[in-house]
Amino acid sequence: MKLKIKHTTTYNFDQPVPYGLQQLRLTPKSRAGQAVVDWQMSIEGGEIQTDYNDHHQNRVTLISFDAGATSVVIHCEGEVENADLHGIVGKHTGFAPLWHFQKSTELTRAGPNVRRLAKGLRDEVAEDVPRLHALSARIIEEVPYEIGTTHATTTAEEAIEHGCGVCQDHAHIFVAAARSMGYPARYVSGYLMMEDRIHQDASHAWAEAHVEGLGWVGFDVSNGYSPDARYVRVATGLDYREAAPVSGMHFGGAGDAMGIDIMVQQQ
């Protein structure tokens, strides 16, 4: 399946910004089952300073804002050809060792709520992949998808307390619970072609767990299945902060508004 993607991020500032610096994790990479045919990035109101691969092998682009900018627009566009590997990413690669993905973070701490969700699964389900799918089902039952109740700094524990959340929360809960069960696990950001719309106002997030004999396997808690050919994998990390599409800071500009428009469709 060949997918065409357009992703535009717009910042509007109420006052000129003297300085700004952003890290962009917006460039997908070719891997087993995913071939990047073409990908281009351009900036209005700023310029690309450098790009590099981080310790998760994410492609990171560092941009600066033009001095005095009142708006910055980041354009990404390209084509990716995917095969359906039933969520299997495969063997571990990269600079970070596998044990690193059992490390807890502020967003993925396994407190009493997370441990309760994972309790008993090792005894109830004998095999790894069915066990992790059962975990995914428990999470979406306890934390149904609902926008507007959580935010970028909501932890896995807090999302369970809220009783609802979005794909970022589901991924954090899954990662925290899987690690508590002994699996290396990580957060994934990327794109999903939806059946009912072309335009979206946010990228997608899911999780991966490392299963002996298979390697990394993806689980999309929000949708209840493993990623297929409709998914474009862009960045991974211990949590959202390490895989965020855009992060950084700016000085000046007392207020700002950010808008996102994403278009994903089959070619």
Automatic annotation (TrEMBL):
<dbReference type="InterPro" id="IPR002931">
    <property type="entry name" value="Transglutaminase-like"/>
</dbReference>
<dbReference type="InterPro" id="IPR013589">
    <property type="entry name" value="Bac_transglu_N"/>
</dbReference>
<dbReference type="Pfam" id="PF01841">
    <property type="entry name" value="Transglut_core"/>
</dbReference>
<dbReference type="Pfam" id="PF08379">
    <property type="entry name" value="Bact_transglu_N"/>
</dbReference>
<dbReference type="InterPro" id="IPR038765">
    <property type="entry name" value="Papain-like_cys_pep_sf"/>
</dbReference>
<protein>
    <submittedName>
        <fullName>Transglutaminase family protein</fullName>
    </submittedName>
</protein>
<feature type="domain" description="Transglutaminase-like">
    <location>
        <begin position="159"/>
        <end position="223"/>
    </location>
</feature>
